[in-house]
């Protein structure tokens, strides 16, 4: 049973879809909800029939951030003991492509959840922002790190200090999100993109993600050494034989995922 209290989930072809399902609170993320999201993501990551995971929100918005009701009485010690962000860290250990398909408000922890995904697609009127400063806190689930890596220190500081919202076309221009798709056919366009990635040889897709992830952590030479090992590894796959053979025979390849 994939669908849970705060999350709806299903499989469409090779796409594992997860929908945040707390629309009456703008999908505000409480701890149970995060745990459910990560659990379903991990199930899809292990499911051989799923190639790509798409995360979206039910109702008017993707997510208005962490559940403020749940945090209002927290203390440093309760936070330390609960370590609520430990669950979030598991997202970056997933191997399969993770797409955030967002609309409406994408604020605070909602923005951080989207930034934890590999690709972000949004409708034109989507509003992104980090309002935490106005609550007397700051992002705690990776916002200062992931935003800064995407847009640099000065731009990140301005967004984080003012708490201002940015519309999707601006976020696209700055390279925070991948693409804006028209609202009328948003789901369809996202699914077309997801299926396009799902049709690629899965071990290549997996090892590309693994190598790209190293780019942020390793020196250029160490990163290139890592890339090279992944490249050599792919010559042990049937999909490499098929892909290159199909090119030489001027036909479309049929990938089997091994
Ligand atoms: N936590 C808890 N409840 C929330 C919420 C949140 N983050 N966001 C919205 N809600 C609730 C509201 O309290 C309200 O509940 P009631 O109907 O019981 O009053 C309901 O959702 C609808 O919200 P509004 O009436 O406020 O709707 P609106 O259309 O006037 O405004 C909004 C929408 C702009 C998203 C506004 O609700 C808002 O600013 N929400 C808070 C955004 C925020 O500050 N997010 C950061 C959270 S902290 C964080 O995320 C830390 C981190 O790094 C992990």
TrEMBL record:
Q: Which UniProt keywords apply?
A: Lyase
Q: What Pfam families is this protein classified in?
A: ECH_1
Transmembrane segments annotated in the record for this chain? none
Kindly indicate whether the keyword Repeat belongs to this entry: no
Family to which this protein belongs: Belongs to the enoyl-CoA hydratase/isomerase family.
State the name under which the record lists this protein: Enoyl-CoA hydratase
The species this protein belongs to is Exiguobacterium undae
């Amino acid at each position: 049973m994939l669908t849970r209290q705060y999350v709806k989930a299903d499989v469409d072809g090779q796409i594992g879809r997860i929908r945040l399902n707390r629309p009456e609170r703008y999908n505000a993320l409480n701890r149970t909800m995060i745990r459910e999201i990560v659990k379903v993501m991990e199930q899809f990551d292990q499911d051989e029939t799923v190639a790509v995971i798409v995360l979206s929100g039910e109702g008017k918005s993707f997510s208005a951030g962490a559940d403020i009701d749940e945090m209002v009485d927290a203390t440093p010690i309760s936070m330390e003991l609960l370590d609520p962000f430990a669950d979030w860290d598991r997202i970056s250990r997933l191997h399969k492509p993770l797409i955030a398909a967002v609309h409406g408000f994408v604020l605070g922890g909602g923005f951080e959840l989207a930034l934890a995904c590999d690709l972000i697609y949004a409708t034109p009127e989507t509003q992104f922002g980090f309002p935490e400063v106005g609550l007397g806190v700051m992002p705690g689930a990776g916002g200062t790190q992931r935003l800064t890596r995407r847009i640099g220190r000065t731009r990140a500081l301005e967004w984080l200090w003012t708490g201002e919202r940015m519309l999707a076309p601006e976020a696209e221009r700055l390279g925070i999100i991948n693409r804006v798709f028209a609202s009328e056919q948003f789901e369809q366009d996202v699914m077309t993109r997801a299926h396009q990635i799902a049709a690629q040889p899965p071990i290549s897709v997996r090892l590309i993600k693994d190598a790209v992830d190293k780019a942020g952590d390793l020196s250029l030479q160490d990163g290139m050494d890592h890339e090279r090992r992944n490249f050599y590894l792919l010559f042990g796959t049937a999909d490499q034989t098929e892909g290159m053979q199909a090119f030489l025979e001027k036909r479309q390849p049929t990938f089997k995922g091994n």
